[in-house]
Amino acid sequence: MSCSRDYSNSLFWIDADYRVRVAEDFGELSSGDYGARRFEGQELRLPQRREWWPGMKNLAAQQRGSHA
Length: 68
Hints:
Elements: H1 3-8, E1 12-14, E2 20-22, H2 56-66
Antiparallel strand pairs: 1-2
């Protein structure tokens, strides 16, 4: 799985609570320990300095692309 390709194709995104979300219609050939769904709902490990966190405007734009 190419994470950057899947992110660009809106198969997963980061929500406003900095948690990973996977598109409901995302189909994978396998699941469990190696599938993308294992990341659903997991919180990002963010830097201690808040100014280094991903920008909410950027995250919101990606999320709008995923379920417009």
